[in-house]
Every structure is written in structure tokens, then in C-alpha cells.
């Protein structure tokens, strides 16, 4: 039996969800999911459950750590000020959290002057509004020319850019385009679900390190946006859809880019 | 290069999240973290610089939980009234809090060996390989426990046909 025809196992579906597959296997599972909507739906459920775990417990990351937990550490005499320890732990705790860790940290809209809004959230929402409603040319390259699109984007942005796969969140790639941004370029990928609702994924280089943003939500220019950044790239997933649908899609994007760096291409 | 003790401190929020998810009760979860930290600090000299501190701490927490902590508890861990109240306060509506608490109830019904794997992978984002190392079991066993655990959790969404709205968002 050739690898293409090999049946997909439950273990592989779990590995797909957790970003533990090789790139070649991703394509095989995607093809399988496209032909088996009931399995794709179940996988979507598993993704919702994963998000549910974060909704239940990520609040703990934002709580003050009870003092008695630091007592052992203080006894070591390495610190004289508990304040420093608390601060270090809070900052490090927030920085270290991966996945959906900043779930509860809805950035206050008043912070619109901060870089993450000026350079990531606002341009992403503007680009979303302009192109997702364009009847004739929503994208520059269609999904069928995905290889050309991603190689063009990768060349112009001087980094490896791939379109995330959002099938399990119910969205299929329409295409994408290159956009100008405040320092270089940004990439926009557009997706659509069966209800013809569109979301966009906006990716740009991100070099403003003064604030810590893990996974946050805002509403900007009338559209919802989940956004986060690491030390290199900023990401925004934007759409005028149900917030939970957007969250599931954003989590899929987040997982895709978090896992991508770890798996062989 | 941060001191090992600083690295331990930086992991406390995540250890607390995992412990809360594992144990359920806030105070008991912090007791578990306390036991874990006490042991980790007494053995800090054994931690190899450059190795994965997080996996090391999770190994200690697993050992403390399975070997000592659970034996000290007279009854199986359960959701306290305090937690339920706290949860309903953070939800957008009582309806949503109820649904999330349903998920938590199913978590509590999982066997510990499945619960640990589901949380380490689904909540903490550890790799299968890391979890296998922490629990000292083969990767295949990690995967089968994960599969069985997830199968049970699917009960949370049964009969809820409209999935996205089934998960009402926090705030």
C-alpha cells in the first residue's frame, strides 16, 4: 500500500492536532480530511476542547502567586526583596506562556498608541476591511497558485512564509497578497468558510520588544482581531465573525506557526 | 545566564496552572506546587545546566503528585464550591460557566494517567517526546493515553451541534 493511500489512524489525527507530524504527513492528513468531513468535524471538536482547557485554566497565569510559594526561594538568600521576585515571576510567567496563555489579558483599547496596535492590530484590520470585502480582487494570488504566492512572499519578506492550514477550524484558503507595512512588508492570507465568511491572517516582522503580548483580543474598526507576537514576527487573525469561531481559527494559526519552527520542512 | 533559582521562579505560574488543572482545588493545587518547589530546590544541584528546566520541574511534580500527594488526600480531588463560584464570576454568563464546569467535571473523571497526558499536551503544549521523558513511558503509550483521554473529553460537546457557539468565550 502506498503512503498516499495509507489509512489515517487516530494517533495521526492527534499528532496532527498537536503539531507533531512531519510536513509530508500533514499534506496526506489534509487530503484525508478534505474527503472525510465527519472526521474533520471531530478534529474541530478536539480543537475546541483544547481551547476550553485554556479558558478554564489560563486565568491562573494572571493570578498573583501566593507569598508562601516564595518562602523556600527566599530562604536561599539569593534575593533580599520579595518585590523583585514577584515582578520577575510575573514577567517571566507571562513571557513564557505559549499557546493561548494570554487568554484573559484583553489589552485595553486605550492602549492604541502602543506599538502593537499601531504596527500590527490597526494595519491588519485596515487590510482586512479593504480586501475581504473586495468582490473582484480580494487576493493577488489564488489558493491554486499557493506555491507562487508563498515563494513570492518569502522572497520579499526575507523569511519563510507559509499559509497556515485552517481546515479543522472550518476555513479554506482563498489566496493572499503582499502589503506594505511601517518598516518593510507584510503578508496577508485570506480564508473563507462554507457560510462565505472571510477571515484574514496578517503576518509581519515585529521588532518592538518593550511590551509583552502573548495571545490577546481586541475589536478595532468594527472587526475582531486576535493577535500576538514573538521576538521576530507579529501575527493578527481578523474577521467580522462570531468571536469563538475567530478564536478557534486564531488558535489554529497560532499552533501552526508555533509548531512549524519545530518540525522538519 | 540566569541563575537556576531564577529559572525555577519563572516557571511558578505555569506549574500553578498545571497543578490547578490536575487537582482542581485551588489550595490543594498550591500545596502541590509548594511540595514540588521544596523538592526541586533541595535538588537544584542535580539539575544539569542547559537541560530543559521545565521538563525537569514537571518530572518532579509528577513524582510528588503520584507518589506522595495523592496518598495524603483522604478523598479523590473534586471541584470545591469556592471554585465553582469563582468560575461563574469570570464567565460571560452563568450559562457559559456551566458549560466550562462541565468540561472540568469530565476532566475530574479521567484516570490520572490519562489526565496528566491530556493536560501536559493540550494545556502545557509539551511535545510527545517530552511527556514520554517526564512520565518515563514510551511515546506510543503517551499517544494511546492521549487518545483515550480525548475520547472521553469529547463527551463535553456531544449533543451540541452548533459548535462554535457551544464554546462561549470568556469576556
Which range does the strand content of chain A fall in? 15-25%
Mean pLDDT of chain B: 79
Structural class determined from secondary elements of chain B: mainly alpha
What kind of oligomer do you see? Answer: heterodimer
User: Which shape of chain B, going by the Cα principal axes?
Assistant: globular
Straight-line distance between termini of chain A: 24 Å
The total of helices of chain B stands at 9
Q: How large, in whole angstroms, is the Cα Rg of chain A?
A: 20 Å
**Rough shape of chain A?**
globular
Strand-residue proportion of chain B: under 5%
Give the % helix of chain B. over 70%
Mean pLDDT of chain A: 77
Order of helices and strands of chain B: HHHHHHHHH
Task: Profile the largest sheet of chain B.
Answer: none
What can be said about this structure in brief?
The complex is a heterodimer of chains A (about 260) and B (about 170). Chain A is α+β, with helices and mostly antiparallel strands and about 260 residues long.
Amino acid at each position: 500500500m502506498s503512503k498516499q493511500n495509507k489509512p489515517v489512524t487516530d494517533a495521526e489525527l492527534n499528532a496532527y492536532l498537536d503539531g507533531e507530524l512531519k510536513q509530508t504527513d500533514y499534506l496526506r492528513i489534509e487530503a484525508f480530511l478534505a474527503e472525510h468531513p465527519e472526521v474533520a468535524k471531530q478534529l474541530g471538536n478536539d480543537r475546541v476542547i483544547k481551547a476550553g482547557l485554556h479558558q478554564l485554566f489560563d486565568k491562573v497565569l494572571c493570578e498573583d502567586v501566593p507569598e508562601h510559594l516564595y518562602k523556600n526561594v527566599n530562604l536561599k538568600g539569593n534575593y533580599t526583596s520579595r518585590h523583585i521576585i514577584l515582578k520577575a515571576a510575573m514577567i517571566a510567567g507571562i513571557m513564557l506562556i505559549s499557546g493561548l496563555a494570554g487568554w484573559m489579558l484583553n489589552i485595553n483599547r486605550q492602549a492604541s498608541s502602543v506599538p502593537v496596535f499601531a504596527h500590527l492590530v490597526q494595519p491588519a484590520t485596515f487590510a482586512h476591511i479593504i480586501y475581504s470585502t473586495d468582490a473582484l480582487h480580494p487576493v493577488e494570488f489564488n489558493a491554486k497558485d499557493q506555491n507562487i504566492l508563498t515563494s513570492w512572499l518569502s522572497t520579499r519578506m526575507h523569511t519563510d512564509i507559509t499559509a497556515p492550514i485552517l481546515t479543522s477550524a472550518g476555513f479554506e484558503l482563498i489566496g493572499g497578497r503582499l502589503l506594505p507595512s511601517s518598516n518593510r512588508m507584510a503578508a496577508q492570507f485570506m480564508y473563507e468558510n462554507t457560510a462565505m465568511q472571510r477571515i484574514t491572517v496578517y503576518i509581519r516582522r515585529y521588532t518592538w520588544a518593550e511590551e509583552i503580548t502573548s495571545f490577546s483580543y481586541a475589536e478595532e474598526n468594527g472587526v475582531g482581531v486576535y493577535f500576538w507576537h514573538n521576538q521576530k514576527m507579529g501575527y493578527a487573525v481578523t474577521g467580522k465573525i462570531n468571536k469563538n469561531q475567530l478564536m478557534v481559527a486564531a488558535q489554529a494559526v497560532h499552533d501552526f506557526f508555533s509548531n512549524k519552527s519545530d518540525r522538519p520542512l | 545566564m540566569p541563575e537556576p533559582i531564577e529559572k525555577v521562579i519563572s516557571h511558578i505560574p505555569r506549574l500553578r496552572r498545571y497543578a490547578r488543572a490536575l487537582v482542581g482545588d485551588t489550595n490543594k493545587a498550591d500545596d502541590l506546587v509548594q511540595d514540588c518547589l521544596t523538592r526541586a530546590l533541595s535538588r537544584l544541584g542535580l539539575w544539569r545546566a542547559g537541560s530543559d528546566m521545565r521538563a525537569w520541574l514537571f518530572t518532579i511534580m509528577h513524582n510528588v503528585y503520584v507518589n506522595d500527594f495523592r496518598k495524603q488526600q483522604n478523598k479523590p480531588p473534586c471541584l470545591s464550591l469556592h471554585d465553582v463560584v469563582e468560575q461563574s464570576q469570570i464567565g460571560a454568563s452563568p450559562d457559559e460557566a456551566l458549560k466550562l464546569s462541565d468540561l472540568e467535571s469530565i476532566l475530574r473523571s479521567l484516570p490520572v494517567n490519562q489526565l496528566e497526558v491530556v493536560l501536559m499536551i493540550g494545556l502545557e503544549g509539551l511535545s510527545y517526546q517530552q511527556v514520554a521523558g517526564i512520565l518515563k513511558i514510551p511515546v506510543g503509550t503517551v499517544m494511546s493515553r492521549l487518545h483515550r483521554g480525548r475520547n472521553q473529553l469529547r463527551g463535553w460537546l456531544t449533543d451540541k451541534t452548533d459548535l462554535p457557539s457551544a464554546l462561549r468565550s470568556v469576556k
